[in-house]
């Protein structure tokens, strides 16, 4: 058993207690709709508001006769020509425009880039490839309408979708200029490493990941599909410069190392920041825990650098 009392500091421990207080003991036994309500209520507890001067406006895209809701964030002062497209986390099952509203607003303020949050379809009502189809369709439309570089960014499931976009559209006239992945699920080996060492980590377990994957796949066995798990790809060439920020105490931690190594072996610029003493979902601790604040600064710094065509690593 991993002793998290030794690995996690008091600020993250207090954050865990605050999150746990939002979840009834029988949450896992409740319906998906009830779980979404619980998750959304938790997100409201942690919502930090918008930085001064950032404005937000809801909009929608149309793709293949379906509507994809989006939210556009505009900074008080633009510091470059880049656009950031953000895909939210939530295991492909929960989350939406509200769950990561403050995160997107803060990325917008910190970088000076406009940000668009994409409200892709959720499982289990919509199984794979619905989520990646929406993510890719949204990217293509938003990129086609933007004259400058486009950076894709996302946390957890949103990190998976960001990578899925990059693997799908590489070589197209408009492809991402960079990607920033926050504790992403990339499809690493579940039989070893962090999947075992942190199988019962606070905030997110290996069993949680498997349950979300089963809902997303509709119970099907999916292989060789990098839009499902990007590490399933056999060719990592031609992908954009990539920065990943993981949580050290997270089953998904090693995915970032493995993805970085695959990218570098294919000649792609890749950098991994391992968030020591952090757990999955640490974005919500960025205002109360110093390690999370520093990790968020790494994230916004990476988005800003990639949006300006810089590689400071």
Describe the structure.
The structure is a single chain. By secondary structure, the protein is of the alpha/beta class. The protein is 37% helix and 18% strand. The chain contains ten helices and eight strands. The chain has helices spanning 4-7, 10-20, 32-46, 101-111, 130-144, 157-169, 194-197, 206-217, 253-265, 290-307; strands at 55-63, 66-74, 83-87, 115-118, 150-155, 178-182, 242-249, 270-279. The chain is globular, with a radius of gyration of 18 Å.
SSE string, helix = H, strand = E? HHHEEEHEHEHEHHEHEH
Number of helices: 10
State which percent range the strand residues make up: 15-25%
CATH H-level superfamily? Alpha/Beta hydrolase fold, catalytic domain
Mean pLDDT score: 97
Strand order of the largest sheet: 1-2-4-3-5-6-7-8
**Spatial extent as radius of gyration:** 18 Å
The CATH topology label is Rossmann fold
- Which residue ranges are poorly predicted, with pLDDT under 50 across at least 5 consecutive positions? none
Between the first and last Cα atoms, what is the distance in angstroms? 35 Å
Which CATH architecture?
Answer: 3-Layer(aba) Sandwich
Gross morphology? globular
* Tally of strands: 8
Main sheet attributes: strand count, strand direction, barrel closure: 8 strands, mixed
DSSP helix fraction: 25-40%
* Number of discrete domains: 1
CATH class: Alpha Beta
Briefly note the structural class of the backbone: alpha/beta
Tell me the layout of helices and strands.
Elements: H1 4-7, H2 10-20, H3 32-46, E1 55-63, E2 66-74, E3 83-87, H4 101-111, E4 115-118, H5 130-144, E5 150-155, H6 157-169, E6 178-182, H7 194-197, H8 206-217, E7 242-249, H9 253-265, E8 270-279, H10 290-307
Parallel strand pairs: 3-4, 3-5, 5-6, 6-7, 7-8
Antiparallel strand pairs: 1-2, 2-4
């Amino acid at each position: 058993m991993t002793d998290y009392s030794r690995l996690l500091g008091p600020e993250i421990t207090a954050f865990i207690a605050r999150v746990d207080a939002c979840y009834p003991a029988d949450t896992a036994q409740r319906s998906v709709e009830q779980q979404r309500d619980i998750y959304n209520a938790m997100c409201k507890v942690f919502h930090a508001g918008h930085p001064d001067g950032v404005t937000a406006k809801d909009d929608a895209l149309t793709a293949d006769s379906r509507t994809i809701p989006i939210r556009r964030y505009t900074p008080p002062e633009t510091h470059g020509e880049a656009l950031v497209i953000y895909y939210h986390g939530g295991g492909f099952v929960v989350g939406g425009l509200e769950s990561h509203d403050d995160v997107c607003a803060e990325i917008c303020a910190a970088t000076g880039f406009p940000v668009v949050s994409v409200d892709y379809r959720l499982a289990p009502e919509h199984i794979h490839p619905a989520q990646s189809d929406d993510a890719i369709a949204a990217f293509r439309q938003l990129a086609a309408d933007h004259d400058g570089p486009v950076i894709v960014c996302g946390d957890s499931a949103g990190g998976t979708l960001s990578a899925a976009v990059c693997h799908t559209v590489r070589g197209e006239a408009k492809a991402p200029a960079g990607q920033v992945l926050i504790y992403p699920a990339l499809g690493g080996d579940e039989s070893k490493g962090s999947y075992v060492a942190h199988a019962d980590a606070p905030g997110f377990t290996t069993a949680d990941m498997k349950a979300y994957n089963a809902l997303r796949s509709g119970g099907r066995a999916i292989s060789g599909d990098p839009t499902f798990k990007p590490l399933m790809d056999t060719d990592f060439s031609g992908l954009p410069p990539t920065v990943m920020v993981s949580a050290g105490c997270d089953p998904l931690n090693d995915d970032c190392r493995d993805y970085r190594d695959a990218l570098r072996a294919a000649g792609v610029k890749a950098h991994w920041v391992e968030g020591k003493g952090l757990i999955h979902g640490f974005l919500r601790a960025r205002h109360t825990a110093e390690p999370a604040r520093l990790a968020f600064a790494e994230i916004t710094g990476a988005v800003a650098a990639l949006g300006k065509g810089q590689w400071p690593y």
